Structures are given as C-alpha cells and as structure tokens.
TrEMBL record, chains C, D:
Alphabetical keyword list: Oxidoreductase, Thiamine pyrophosphate
SMART domains: Transket_pyr (SM00861)
Gene3D superfamilies: 3.40.50.920, 3.40.50.970
Native organism: freshwater metagenome
Example of a GO MF term: oxidoreductase activity
Protein name: Unannotated protein
Amino acid sequence: MVTSLTRRGQLNTEVGRLERMLEIRAVEESIQTLYNDGHVRGSTHLANGQEAVSVGIASVLRPTDVVTCTYRGHAAALALGVTPEGVLGEICGRVIGCSGGIGGSMHLMDASVGLMPTFAIVGAGLPVAAGVALAAKLKNNDSVALTIFGDGSTNIGAFHETLNMASIFKLPVIFVIENNLYGEYTRINLSTPISDLADRADSYAMRKEIVDGQDVDAIINAIQSAVDFARAGNGPSLIEAKTYRYSGHSRSDPATYRTPGELDEWKKRDPLDIAANKLILKGELSEVDLEKMKSDIADRVAEAIKTVLASDGPELSTLMQHVSAKG
Amino acid sequence: MVTSLTRRGQLNTEVGRLERMLEIRAVEESIQTLYNDGHVRGSTHLANGQEAVSVGIASVLRPTDVVTCTYRGHAAALALGVTPEGVLGEICGRVIGCSGGIGGSMHLMDASVGLMPTFAIVGAGLPVAAGVALAAKLKNNDSVALTIFGDGSTNIGAFHETLNMASIFKLPVIFVIENNLYGEYTRINLSTPISDLADRADSYAMRKEIVDGQDVDAIINAIQSAVDFARAGNGPSLIEAKTYRYSGHSRSDPATYRTPGELDEWKKRDPLDIAANKLILKGELSEVDLEKMKSDIADRVAEAIKTVLASDGPELSTLMQHVSAKG
Amino acid sequence: MTVMRTRQAVIQALSDEMESDPTVFLMGEDIGSGGPFKATEGLIEKFGDTRVIDTPISEMAFLGAGVGAAAMGMRPVVEMMFIEFIGVALDQLTTQGAFFRYLSRGAYQVPLTIRAAAGAGMGFGCQHSQILDQWFRGNAGISLVIPSSPQSMYGLLRSAIRSNDPVVILEHKGLYGERGDVITGEAGIIPIGQARTVTEGSDVTIVAIGSTVLTAKAALESQSEWSAEIIDLQTLIPWDKSAVMKSVAKTGRLVVIEESSYSGGWGAEICSEVVTKLWGQLKTPPHRITSPDAPIPYAQELEKRYLPSSDYVVSQINELLKTGKSPAAWWEGAK
Amino acid sequence: MTVMRTRQAVIQALSDEMESDPTVFLMGEDIGSGGPFKATEGLIEKFGDTRVIDTPISEMAFLGAGVGAAAMGMRPVVEMMFIEFIGVALDQLTTQGAFFRYLSRGAYQVPLTIRAAAGAGMGFGCQHSQILDQWFRGNAGISLVIPSSPQSMYGLLRSAIRSNDPVVILEHKGLYGERGDVITGEAGIIPIGQARTVTEGSDVTIVAIGSTVLTAKAALESQSEWSAEIIDLQTLIPWDKSAVMKSVAKTGRLVVIEESSYSGGWGAEICSEVVTKLWGQLKTPPHRITSPDAPIPYAQELEKRYLPSSDYVVSQINELLKTGKSPAAWWEGAK
Ligand SMILES: Cc1ncc(C[n+]2csc(CCOP(=O)(O)OP(=O)(O)O)c2C)c(N)n1
Ligand SMILES: Cc1ncc(C[n+]2csc(CCOP(=O)(O)OP(=O)(O)O)c2C)c(N)n1
Ligand SMILES: [Mg+2]
Ligand SMILES: [Mg+2]
C-alpha cells in the first residue's frame, strides 16, 4: 500500500507537484456528491483555488517537521501525504479515515508526515505550532513548525500573542497566511483595516514576505527561505500567500457576497493551470500527458471513493478509546 | 462634602493639576504605613512616577466620558476625582471606600466621574472600553471612552483584537499605553521585540502618538488631539506615554531587576518637579507656595487616613448585595 | 399562534425585541448574512447595519464590547456562533461582565445576552458539538437557558434580552429545524428561572433540558408501562428548584437526562439537591442518564451512541422501576 | 523527612522532577524571579533560562505552546500565576490539548502540567481569589488536583508532571506559607486520583479538598461530641469514588465542605453519586457546606464570612446530627 511518507516523496518533481494539485482538486470536487448521497455530515471547507499553497509547503518541509492547519485542511493533508482514502474516509466517518472516522473533515491528522489534528477553532493552531518549535529548540534539533491559517484569523488574539512570543523566543516556526480575501462571508476590507497582512509582522520585528499564492514555485521559494532562516536559528517568519477560494466558506455557503467578476478573474490564474502551463511551455508535458494525468487521477479518486464506501464506520468501542492515558 | 465631580473641576488650572499630582504621590506614599499597621490586604500597585499621565487624561476628559483602567489605578481614580478617603478607604476595605470596601485596591470605581471598576486581568479593560465607545456611537452622542494599560499588556490578545475592531468600527476610544518599561518583573525588551509600542497602531491603520509621560502638558496635548479626533467621528487613537514607576510592580516587589542607575535617571525627570518648575519659572508659584501646598496636602491626606481608620468595614449583609438584579 | 421552525423563532424574538426596544442590537461574526444556521436571516435588511453588526473574528473584543455597551445602557445580543468559541474569550463574561454589578455596587449593570449554537448529533466533531454549561456555573451573576422548542426559544430569548444581568442562551443545533406552534408577543414570553411541566405523570419525574426534553418525550411515548412527569428546566442556571421538588415529592422518583458527559454533568446538582431536601421521600435512588465521559466523535453511529437515546432511557427507567436500584450506564463494564 | 512550607514543596517537586527528567521545563510569567508567591524561586539559577522560561503576558500563546511542546514529547509545567488568568486562554487546554489524544487516536499525547494559585482569604479581591474548578469539568482528558499540605503539594505536583495527560494543579494561596513534614523522593509521590483519609471516625464522613481540609480538621478538633472521617480528596477530577464510598458506607453520613459557591459547586457530584450508589445506607441526608452564591469580597470580615469557617462547620454538623436533617445555610433566610 502507498504510505503517506512515500506520497510525500512524490512532491520532489514539478510533475509530481502538479499531479498532487490535480488530485487535491479532484478529491475536493468529489465531496459534494458524497454529501448528496448522505455520506458526509457536519460541515466541510474546500480549498479549491488554494492548492498551490499546501503543495508548496509540503514540498519544502521534511516529514519530521510539523504542521498545524485549520478546518480547511483537505489540501494540506493530501499535500503532506495523506491518501485520498485517508481524507475522504475521514470525511465520510469511516475507520480507514486518517483519524479513524473520529474527527471528521475538520480534524484530519497523520503523525507520520507531521500533520497534527487540524484545528477547528480559529487561531488555535498558532500557539501549538509555537510549542512544537519550542520543543525543537529545547531538544536542539533543526525541525521547524509551520502553521497555516486564513486572513480572517489574523484578527484573533492568539495570532498576536503567538507572533510576539515566537519572535522574542526566536522560535523556528513559519506562519503562513492563506489570504483568500474572505473570512466566512465577510470580505477582508470589512474586518481588517489593512490589506497586506504580512505587514503585521512589523509589530513583532519579524521577517515577512508576501507571495503569489497561485504559483507553487513562488510558494516553494518563500517557504524555503523561511525554513532555512528558521533552521539556522534565526527565528520565525510571517508569509502571506495571496490566494482565493473558488467555493463558498463551507458547504452551505453559496458565496453570494462576492464582488461580481472576482471569481472569474481569479480563475484566470488557477494554480493548476499555472503549474501545467509552465511544464508545457518548457516542453516537459504535453496537453495529452496532462489529459492522461487528469483522467488517471479521476480514476484513482473514483477508486478511493469505492474503497471508502466499502469500508466500515469505526467500531462503537472506539468511542471510549484514547480518551486519556488510561483508555 | 467634596464630591468627585467638584474635585474633577479642580484640574482646570495648572496649579490644580500640580496639586492633584502631589496629592496622588502623597496618598500612595501613605499606603506602606497603612499596610505595616495591618489595614491593607492582598496586593497594591503604585503609580508613583506616572502621575502626569492620569492627571493629564482626567484634565481633558469630561466626567461623562468613561475610563477603564487596570489594577494600577490609584492615580487614575484620584485624578478623575475620587477622594483620598475613597481610594484609601477602598484599599483598607472600609465602607467609605469608593467601591464600598468590596473591591479593594485593584477594583476602584466611581460612576459619577466615569471610572468603571478597574480591571485586575491584563487587557480586560480594552474590549469593555470599545463597547462603551460603541454605545456612544450607537446613541449618537459625542462621549468617548479611554482605556489605560501598561506596556506588558500590549502582548495580550485582547489588545490586538480590540484595536483592530475599534479601527474597523471607527470607535471613539483612546488607547493609552503607560509604557513604564516593565511588566511585573520583566523588562520590556525581554517580552516585546519593538520599543516604540505606538507603532503597533500601524497593524490597524490607527492614528498614533508617542508622548513624554512625565510632562502633564504634553499628555494633555496628546489626549486632547485624540479626544477631538474621536469626538469628530474619526475613530480611535493609540497613545504611548513613556514613563516609569518608582516602586516595584506590587507591594512585595523590591524591584531588584532594574538596570542600575535607571531609577535615578528617571527621578531627574519627576513629573511633579517638571510641573512645579514650569510654574515657578513662569512666576506663578514660589518655592514657598510649593512647600505650603505640599504640607497642606500632607495634612489633608493625614486627615483622610484618620477618617478612613475611624470608618467601619462594610456590613456583612453587603456580601450578598448587588450579586444580580434580584439582590 | 404561528407554526415556525426554531431558527425562525430566534429571528422572530430578536426582531420583536429590537422593534420594541431601540437599545437592543446584535453583534457577531457574519450575523448580517444569517450565520451558518440562518438564525439571524433578514434582520440586517430590516434593522440596518448599526443594529446588526458584523464583527471581525475577535471574540474577546466583541464579547467585551458587549459588556461595555451593556454597562452603558444598551442591550447587546452577542452571538458566539458555536459555544466552544467563547473558550477564547471567557474572561470577559465570567470574570468581567458577571462581576460588574457587584464591584460597582449596582452603579453599572450588564444586560447582555449571549447566543450560541450548542449540542451534538449533527456531525460537527468534538470542537463544535458540546454544551459546555459548566463554564458558566458557580457565577451568581450569570443565567443560562437552553430552549427545547420554537416556543421556548422565542420566549426565553425575549426574556434573556430583557434581563438586567448577562444571560447565555444555548441554541441546540439539532433543534433549529424543528417546527412548532409559537405564541408570539408578550404572551409568548417565558420567564428566566422557570421550568415547564411537559407531561403530568406519577411514576417518575424526568428532568431534562434542550434536546433531552425531546428524548424524554420520545421515551415516554414509546412505552406504556409507566407514566412520567417530564420537567423541561428551560433555565439551567438558576434551575427551578420548586418545580422539581414539587414533582418529585409527588412521583417519588427522579431521573435526569443530560446530553453531556456523566462526570461534571449538571444533573448531579439536581440529584444532590432533591435528595437532600426531600430526604426520605424518594422511593428509588435519583438516577442520571447521560453521555459517556468521552469527547464527541464524528462518525454517525458513534455520535448516535454518544447521545442518550430514547430507547436507552426507556431501558434505564424500566430497570430503575423494576429493581429499585440505579442501573449501570451502558459504558460501565463495557470498557 | 524535612519540614518545609508549601511554597518550598512546590520548588522541591519541580526541582526533583527537572533533575530526574530532562524533558521537564517551566514556562510562565516572571517565574524566573520566583513569581508573586516565590513558588519557583531559585530554579532559574539552578536550571538556567532554557528550562525556566519567562514569557510575555500572553496566556493563550504560552499555554498553547505548552500543548504543542507536550505533544512533541516534552513535559512542560506552565504557570498561570492566578487561575483566573486561564479565562483568556481556556480554549488551548480544554478544546485543544484535552482532545489531542482522542483526535490523534493516541499518536499525540499531552503530558502538560498547569500550575496556578487559587482560592480566597488573602484579600486579593474577586478576580484573583476563585477556585474555578468548574472550567475543567466534563472533560475526560483533564485531571485537577488541589493539595492541602506541603506533602500533598510535593507528591501531587510530581505526579502531575509525570502524567501523560494534562493536569491542572491549583495551589491554594492561603496554604503557601503553611509548614509541614515532607517526605521527598519517590516515596513522597502521591498518585493522581487517590484520596487520603486524614482522620478515622465513625459519625460522619467529611469530604474536603485544599483549604477545606484544614477547616475540617479545625472543626473536628474544636469539639468532642462527634468523630469524623475526614477524606482529603486531593484529586477533584477524577475524584476517588471508592475511598468516599467506603467511608460513607461505614459512617452513614456525608458532609462535603467546599470553598466556592453553593450553586455549581463540585460537592453536588459527590453527594449525588454517594446517595445513588449507597442508596438506603445513609442515616442522614448528604449535606454540603459551602460559600454563598456571591463574588468574593475584599473587606476582611466579609471575606472571612464568605469562606466556611470551622465554627460554622461544627454548628452545621451538630445540627445535622441532632435533627437528622440538612441544616439551612447561614445565608438562607438572611436575605
Ligand atoms: C474562535 C473562532 N471563531 C469563529 C469561528 C468560526 N469560523 C470558522 S472559519 C471562520 C473564518 C475564518 O476565516 P479565515 O481565517 O480567513 O480562513 P478561511 O476560512 O478563509 O480559510 C470563522 C469565523 C471559529 N471556528 N473559531
Ligand atoms: C491575563 C493576565 N495575565 C497576567 C496577569 C498578572 N499581571 C498583573 S499586572 C502584570 C504586568 C502588567 O504589566 P504592564 O502591562 O506593563 O502594566 P504595569 O503593571 O507596568 O502598569 C501581570 C503580568 C494578569 N493580571 N492578567
Ligand atoms: Mg480567508
Ligand atoms: Mg509596565
């Protein structure tokens, strides 16, 4: 069977990264049908349009580095290595889900590739990432922690406290804002009086960078610099990836609040297209190859869905397991 | 009897302001003896060295404006108008205390001059002040709210959240940092990677000003501009007053962590001396007047202490009063 | 009388209070667009954005702003969306707002309402499904209400807004879609602190609140061996002691149904108080039917198992009546 | 065996654990200088500033950092200074750290200790004097201990640090200065979840924790009409059911002494459980002696009145034994 770790290794080529982005898109697009068929409960938060950020991050980090991410975590989980079965299984509450079906869409995890259970409370992943980085520092190893969160989350207290503390302690942690212009149904200008969120780093004398969130190569460069900086003991960075989500905030949101034309504008800079076009331009991929890739991925995702739907829910006894060290 | 409101009016002259600063100093200096004699419990936090900030603020605000302040609130309370009997009575847990002896040193209050019960949790007064300002805005009156807090408090989440929200909502609220260089026993450079805290306003596109905290006239100017700005509907300001506390953080703190010589340096710029010298230079006060003023104040404070010590503790029944609307 | 869903009862109550009292205003994340449960839909259109205020994601700031505005005579209704979110802001309510009246000797009061969705059963996972009433206990300034129907949502929410002290209203997300008759207007208002007798009966008093009122009713209706007096507490803090005492004095038996974990659950306070005050009058031990001591799982079957079902309630009460002893919970010995 | 004050027992326990386990480190505001209660004095000199870490005033950040570091195999001891301060950061413990093990199916665990001063009687006012155990209830991942002596401070703190789940240890500020014999080393360690029988007796079981253990002892010693089995719970969450049951089965009477308000107090859970499980075996109703439902006042006489005194305990127990009924609290009818 493919492990998360081997899947992580597949990101070391441009083609591999494109494939993963395509896979993420395909996996997320399958969720609505699963929902319609009654397999998905609660809420799901898609990251389509934002795939490059997650794949870029996963391409740079080592599996021994640790990531904390939000409820909008499908892309990060798949990028870091979790299989489509692991993600879709979790969303469908099956025992083969990456959290055994206990967590659901908002709580994906895979310790083997450094993904902590994703956080459903805004801002909650930041202090924990700082703690991971602190542990690395105290243990004197060169691991880093990275935390992914949205533009809206830069208004929560934990953001401020954690950035300040990380700076003072020079912690090896990278703060990545996925600025997709909306926090739930609210456009950023209605919640935040500045538009370049990276500038908030100045309050903490922190290294900062703004990066094109639709270009996986740009992400890789930005993350790589921040990771190098952190591993060298120089402390944290704040990276703002300018990006966009094509779907509404969560399943129930038709996103009627968008500025007219905005979605179409952003789709012109689709991260999958950008990556594919680069490869095509360089002659490393043909249109035919791309179509083949897409259909292979479609097959694999369809296969994954079959596996998921054939799999059981977790046993009732798991409800009482891992509650505490005692059981 | 002198009311808080009449005492507030006494700040409309330079001499009145000097007198109040001298009074604050004298009141605070009496607390240690009261403690030694067993009249004070828990903790007290002196503001000596910082008197100009409170007096400057109180000179500008109207009694219908509202102030939220921290546990380091003796100076603010006295400046806003609370009598020495009210403050010392509260510190000694007497029924004539400004909170009826129920609150203690950390919880002074006087609604007649806009002092909300002072806040013993770091950062807690900021959101409440924003709410006061929001109420003024919704009621369409031109009251402002002002909140006083320390340098260390700029690292708490509530600071960040409140400044952002106040900016977005254009609330008539003034945020005043008393930067006395220490949060408890920790020097600012060990907790905060920047030294001009007013710069944190940039994260919220907020108006900012740094002001000499030892010069009451400078404070008045800074507060007046911010208040005018707020009353005109332009929104909040962040004001950083550079100041220093002569005592330790609280009674039990000998402040051994100070940089050598630092205290002496700051004492050279004592806010009381600065104010007195200005009046003397202008010929509006003689050394003799000043000594007379000081000894009158000493007498008044001694008198207040007598009154306090002659007064009773609150009745036992008050323990169960004002718990809820029902009683 | 109108038939409406619970979510509509929220809107109706807010709208009626806002119309009758200009100091009432709403504040929270995305309430303008109705929020994830559409429980504030249409209000911004009706009352404008100065009375329906969308906030940044800053619970500490806007909850505290509610405290401050309330102290200045406004009546803010602050939405926490999911009750777990108050975990980043609890201080402002429990340590600040709740003590304002006391510390100011009545000079300031805090007529603040906090609305939040709560409760399990909808697949929101362990961080979006709890009740968390424990966070508000032991704080005499705060009331906590949990409606069980469109009517009690309407009536309790209006009372909450009119209260001169902070009131937390937990809106069970499993009930938002439930329909029921609602008497609106003054006649539909339900006082804080008053329980409602849902059914009269003689064999056992069942104390429930929110979702467990429905569980109790379903349990009662699914059998015919015993009759039960179901008491919908409606207000959990402070709970209606006299209503419960009166009923248990009559039936001689007390069963409490709680949605949260056994340990730390509110039912213990009911049992303790009843047994102490009605010493010698109970025919069987007081008995609590609760969820197990575990976080709330996502997978459907597990979440279903987590919640006390009506079948489980029936079997527990059957056993209580048959043996005269408090039956073991399903998870006991199952470990 | 050494005589030391409770605050010194804190230092000794921290020091011993830090010496024996290099993953243990301390984090909090001003702990390097010993903090307001001098309960960490000398440790930074001994272990350096990488193991005794002073933080900015950012409870959310450093509590959460404790969670993250713990999940990576460290054993952080995070100080909250006063327990109220966790009100600005509760989410990180109760909604994040406590669920980490569950959500990760055991892949991550959170061996985190949270120390905080708690309790009234020292004139710190209503925002620095509470116990607040209620915030940690109903969350199966978390334990809560409250020592009552230098020995139990030493023994419980060491156990807390060794626990593989989060443990909150509430250090009563009124006890920091108390002296007592302490057995240090492994022999002095007290397991989480175990109560201690302080005195043997036959008329009544008194369940107490923290400061109320001292109140119970003083009450017992001040009279000679009845004998009491005083149980020091030591751990409140989860409390030692078998120790309490065993004692009440013997004495037939249960009295709980709590420092916090009557409503919402933890004693109700003890009473409910005991009465249910020992149905028919109690000679008198279970009885709770608590503080009133009010914030904690500053003025000395009022704060004294707020706390249950040993005289009050004696009079309550006298009345319970004489009348066989649960006596009214002092504030009942006094309103
Ligand atoms: C403390 C807290 N407040 C509110 C929420 C509800 N909520 C979930 S996602 C979200 C919007 C977050 O926006 P952003 O940070 O921009 O991330 P995005 O969803 O766009 O990725 C909100 C308000 C929450 N989960 N936690
Ligand atoms: C949330 C919270 N954390 C910690 C404390 C303890 N504490 C009280 S005052 C203080 C220092 C505050 O420093 P600063 O903001 O600079 O104000 P200053 O005391 O210097 O006026 C601390 C840490 C508290 N009261 N509340
Ligand atoms: Mg966003
Ligand atoms: Mg300071």
